[in-house]
Specification:
By secondary structure, this protein is mainly beta. The protein is built from one helix and nine strands. The protein has a single domain, classed as Immunoglobulin-like, CATH 2.60.40.2550. InterPro entries: DUF6941.
């Protein structure tokens, strides 16, 4: 059986003392920034992998930002043990991603030196900036208010 991957983008990931993950601010649609471009925002990705053989596995995880630049690369190992139903959950929390423009954020993964593939992607749309914030940002940049 080929491994199956599920992934979610969210604002943050916490882990309970019991080992369960808490996903905060799960994106059900696009990422819609609340501040104007460009800016840096931490993004988290949670993934569950099912169907890998028991034992230690090496992974290479990459995040590509909307500007098509590598935002993060993580290489590490994890263990699939008999007591966890041959599945493993990995959380990558607080990865700072530069949003210079709208586009897509892509998560790529490779397990045990197999070919890399896209684990998940999410669209980043134009910011929806509150008018009060926009005026304050403009004033801070030295532009007089309209």
């Amino acid at each position: 059986m080929a491994p199956r991957f599920d992934a979610l983008f969210c604002d943050d990931i916490r882990q309970e003392i019991t080992g369960k993950h808490i996903l905060i601010g799960v994106y059900g649609g696009d990422i819609v920034p609340s501040v104007p471009f460009p800016h840096v925002t931490p993004v988290s990705i949670w993934t569950k992998i099912v169907g890998l053989p028991l034992g230690e596995h090496t992974f290479r995880f990459k995040i590509i930002g909307p500007d098509a630049q590598l935002a993060a690369e993580i290489v590490d190992t994890f263990l699939v043990e008999p007591n966890n139903s041959e599945s493993v959950a990995l959380g990558f929390a607080g990865i700072p991603i530069t949003f210079p423009k709208s586009g897509s954020v892509r998560a790529l993964i490779s397990i045990d030196d197999q070919p890399e593939f896209e684990l998940a992607a999410i669209k980043v749309t134009e910011p929806r900036v509150h008018p009060d914030f926009a005026a304050a940002a403009k004033e801070a940049a030295g532009d007089p208010p309209a």
